[in-house]
Amino acid sequence: MSAEQPQAVVRRGTNLDRVGGFNDTVVLDAIRRAEQRLSRVELAAATGLSGQAISNITRRLLDAGLVREAGRQKSAGLGKPRTLLELEPTGQYAVGVHLDPAVVTVVLLDLTGQVIARRRAQTPAADGPDVLIAGIAATVEDVIAEAGVPRQRVVGVGIAAPGPIDVDRGVVVDPPNLTAWHLVPLRDALRDRTGLPVLLDKDVTAAASAEKWAGGPNGRGSFVFFYLGTGIGAGLVIGDEVVRGSSSNVGEIGHVIVDPEGPLCFCGRRGCVGESSRPRYLVQQAVDAGVVARGIDLDDRHAVDVAFTALCTAATGGPGAAREIVTALAERIAKVVEDIANLLDLERVVFGGPHWDRLAPFFGDAIRETLEERFLVRSVHPFTVTGTALGADVGAVGAASLVLDHTFSPNPSVLLLGPASESAPSGSRASSALSR
Ligand SMILES: [Zn+2]
């Protein structure tokens, strides 16, 4: 469907049953996942559908504005050159929101997963959920307006939020670093304010999904995405599939004890990896070691963040107290990575999150050295330590990519998302995950 057609007709393109059903999503997914453009012949081979079926389906996808023809490929022998197909970037868009206790990031992705607009703002520490949700809704509108895309082509909004979450009800349960939040129905509140379908998922699951879709070689196979932010967490991709766990709350590693002498955690124990990774604790150590000036207010999140940056900068300068503090942090985190990697026989750890840029200069080597000695399967395959190429947007990009996944993946449960979802069994995860 082209933009010139009436709005009602354009909107039909977002409903998969009207695009043509399961086989259409299979073909669209094959085009989306391919690393290069595919011809109809290659699509038939990849999907097991007949040449005639592929011809009909690609015609519908072209008409719907979801794919486009892009060049020709000489065929082997005497056949006609084959026309290649690729996604039409402007076919559909998805919004991604990453709610971190310190910063809210909102991005707009096109159908190919490229970020075409972004906004980032500090999370107001004192505000309750209502004020923050109103702010997020306004930012969603700003990002759509800034990009100048037709609103009816925005398929939905994905929110990446700190766990634990109740995915079925779209509720943020008790995020440890957002004290005013308790059982907040974030998904439905944002749906009511924007009028768009909304999906809520965990921040680390979103980040792992972003890495899988847009991370290049980092995103293949089996890896853990290790999130370093106000909290820490782990997203998992095993055998190219994002692992969710029984309630989509996979990756709660914050209370793994890595230092029995460490700081007291709110859970009542000492030396949990989450608590001993917090900038507040690291800045306290830096003050004690004389790296950061005394007198800093450790309850002032902004001041702590500035001091944390100063600590990281000092650590890159060479050996000394600052370097020791950060290396000890790397060793504590390496212990957790080691356990996850050995437990699940992973190939890679990908680090990311708001703190990664500051820790990356020395962190990678420290973790690599520690793991070199301890990764048990190293004689069978290597284990690599790397950082995300997606930068600080990774959570928001992931949230938007989950919307594209839910909308365009050929997983049959996802087809419930169209109008048919209203009559779907209420227990269905997909129908309840994306709130219309
Ligand atoms: Zn704890």
From TrEMBL:
GO terms for molecular function: DNA-binding transcription factor activity. This is ROK family protein. It comes from the Bacteria. InterPro entries: ATPase_NBD, HTH_MarR-typ, ROK, ROK_cs, WH-like_DNA-bd_sf, WH_DNA-bd_sf. It comes from Kribbella flavida (strain DSM 17836 / JCM 10339 / NBRC 14399). SUPFAM superfamilies: Actin-like ATPase domain, Winged helix' DNA-binding domain. Residues 27-69 form the HTH marR-type domain. Gene3D superfamilies: 3.30.420.40, Winged helix-like DNA-binding domain superfamily/Winged helix DNA-binding domain. Belongs to the ROK (NagC/XylR) family. PROSITE patterns: ROK (PS01125).
